[in-house]
Amino acid sequence: MKETKIYGIYKDKKQLFTVNLKELKGQKVYGEKIIKKDNTEYRSWNPYRSKLAALILKKSEIELRPDFSVLYLGAATGTTVSHLSDILKDGVIYAVENSAISMKKLIKVCEKRKNIIPIFEDAFHFEKYQVILTKVDLIYQDISQRNQSEIFIGNLEKYLKKDGLGILMVKSRSIDVSLKPNEAYDMVCDKLQDKNLKILDLVDLSPYEKDHAAIIIEKYANN
Questions:
Q1: What is the pTM of this model?
Q2: H or E, element range at 161
Q3: Domain ranges within the chain, ordered by starting residue
């Protein structure tokens, strides 16, 4: 097991791992494999079930710190959120989800992982959770809707710190089925640049996710 360049993430051959929280010894979230070495439990992180894991396998320059605060839009049942919980031991993850079915499962994850705060809300109406949030270091979004760019921009403008990082997972078919994936990604990038956001990278997530890409942005200090 080797440490990667990103804090809290480990690698064994081509598989990613995070260290399971000590108080959750032996406990899994979604049936993932647990490996024990030197009294430490490593949870396998499946890139076919987590777009963030797929992004990390394809690009290793993302910065994470144990005290990061993260706004996670489209948290679903908590697969990726749980791995962020392992990494951000001294931080907090605000996990927004608007599906009642997914939220029930997410809450079960949050009951055991105290650094996750579940928010049952539509991320498009970002003003509704302003009483809960402070400014965050990272906004991560995985919402497959036609207006995903507008949702991302609204939350960035409201909640991201100056010089903060944003990661937008784009499903090209949700943007416009008539466009080629690269054309859809370019359309989203144009919208972000119109808001004076600096695009650091665009990463195609194949073979882990078909017709998906991650757009990594930085918020300029004067925004």
A1: 0.94
A2: strand 160-171
A3: 46-219
